Amino acid sequence: MEMDASGWIVTAVAILLTGISKSGLGGALGGLAVPFMSMWISPRDAVAVVLPILIAMDLVGIRAWRGKADVGDLKLLIPSALVGIALATLAFGAMSDAVVKVVLGVISIAFALDRLLRRAGHAVSATSHAGRWFGWLCGAGAGFTSTLAHAGGPPLMAYLLSRRLPKQTYVATSVFFFAAINLAKLPFYIGLDLFSRDTLVMSATLLPLVPLGVWLGMRLLAKIPERPFYFFAIAALGLSGVKLLWDGLLG
């Protein structure tokens, strides 16, 4: 498992952007590392390299965002995400990555367009029937796609954007959600025998980028007003959907 200099540079930038995204933009730009790394190494090796780095980011992030997440949303999202993780583990290697990317891309684009075209919308209550159903669906989708490719951001963003939370609560809830499911994925990855000496060495090499990315993300969040933050998050959701659709159809 080897990468040339250009591969290391692209991977390092993707890891840095992932840290910025997770701590400052609620995962809006997350999921870049695996598709970029997969241009040089196998997707199975890429997800194994990235998971320890994501867990390290989560551990830094939960210290920074402690007490600011929406506990009700987490109680709704995490159990369904665990179901998604279990289903993805069963499907790992049997289900085409392209199919997952196409479905996720279509959902992400449709939701982003819906939000952008509506000048005013009502927030979804987490306790309403529609809110719980949508939350379960998004949580399971996030767990499923996160297990396959660390691409759980779009389903989670779809739910959190519908809740219209304050931006600090939005980001904190995202940080705690992914901290829980990334730790939950660890035994499944071990059971699938994804980790090797090479993947762990590569993870350790990239770990110094974690605190820098988290720090930059928090600084960025402090400077973005509420309305532009949500516009950017919705646009990022749509763009991530376009990329997933492109990769699924033509990758």
Automatic annotation (TrEMBL):
Pfam family, one: TauE
Origin: domain of life: Bacteria
Main location: membrane
Cellular-component GO terms for this entry: plasma membrane
Alphabetical UniProt keywords: Cell membrane, Membrane, Transmembrane, Transmembrane helix, Transport
Signal sequence extent: none
The keyword Chloroplast belongs to this UniProt entry's keyword annotation: no
Membrane topology: Multi-pass membrane protein
Bilayer-spanning residue ranges: 46-62, 98-117, 170-190, 202-222, 229-246
Subcellular localization(s) per the UniProt record: Cell membrane
Family: Belongs to the 4-toluene sulfonate uptake permease (TSUP) (TC 2.A.102) family.
Protein name: Probable membrane transporter protein
Species this protein is from: Parazoarcus communis
Taxonomic lineage from the root: Bacteria, Pseudomonadati, Pseudomonadota, Betaproteobacteria, Rhodocyclales
